[in-house]
């Protein structure tokens, strides 16, 4: 499997070459991989910000534990989960589904009612936790796509979501920063690239029941 070779190649890049930028064509491929990610009910209850503006990234760096990747990488990717999923979100999805699959919108009412009965009854806290989990599926596809393109990436939870929400004006948009990633090309000075991968043996990680 080429996928396994790609995953062997990738690592959490700690130092990026700030002079090397990802091409638009490769960035479009990464965006496509994220868009094809599985999501609960197919709702894609999150938004992905691609931040290239250096000044904004400099403001975000202190809220990211001062990590250099934030400003040195080609792009900073911020996965933002919906903080609320109401009937409008579900109806918008059903309209999109009806249009793409050439279905009658009214024929999807039963499916829509089922989703609404499950989703709109969730507490705010449960909804936020559920939608935040969805972003990690997109993050996984981003990492795999980058590895195939020989583009370096670093998934990051070391940041202050509240700080990101404030600087990027996310709260008023019904969004919250869930997880981030930096993408670009490794610096030759990044010593981490030479480290052997540390993974549990199969006997410890897997159990067949």
From TrEMBL:
Family stated for the protein in its record: Belongs to the nitroreductase family.
Chain coiled-coil ranges: none
Keyword annotations: Flavoprotein, FMN, NADP, Oxidoreductase
Organism of this sequence: Aquimarina rubra
Listed PANTHER family: NAD(P)H NITROREDUCTASE YDGI-RELATED, NITROREDUCTASE
Name the record gives this protein: NAD(P)H-dependent oxidoreductase
Residue ranges annotated for the Nitroreductase domain, each copy included: 8-185
Gene3D superfamilies in the record: NADH Oxidase
Entry cofactors: FMN
């Amino acid at each position: 499997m080429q996928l396994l070779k790609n995953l062997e190649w990738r690592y959490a890049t700690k130092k990026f070459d700030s002079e090397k930028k990802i091409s638009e064509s490769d960035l479009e491929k990464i965006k496509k991989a994220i868009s094809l990610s599985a999501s609960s009910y197919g709702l894609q209850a999150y938004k992905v910000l691609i931040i290239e503006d250096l000044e904004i990234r400099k403001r975000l760096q202190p809220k990211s534990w001062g990590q250099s990747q934030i400003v040195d990488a080609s792009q900073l990717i911020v996965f933002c989960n919906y903080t609320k999923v109401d009937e409008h979100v579900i109806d918008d999805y059903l309209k999109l589904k009806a249009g793409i699959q050439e279905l009658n919108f009214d024929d999807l009412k039963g499916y829509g009612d089922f989703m609404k009965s499950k989703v709109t009854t969730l507490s705010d806290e449960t909804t936020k936790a559920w939608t935040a989990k969805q972003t990690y599926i997109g993050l996984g596809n981003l990492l795999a796509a980058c590895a195939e393109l020989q583009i370096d990436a670093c998934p990051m939870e070391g940041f202050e979501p509240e700080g990101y929400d404030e600087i990027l004006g996310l709260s008023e948009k019904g969004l919250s920063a869930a997880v981030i990633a930096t993408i670009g090309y490794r610096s030759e000075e990044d010593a981490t690239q030479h480290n052997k991968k540390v993974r549990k043996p199969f006997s410890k990680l897997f159990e067949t029941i």
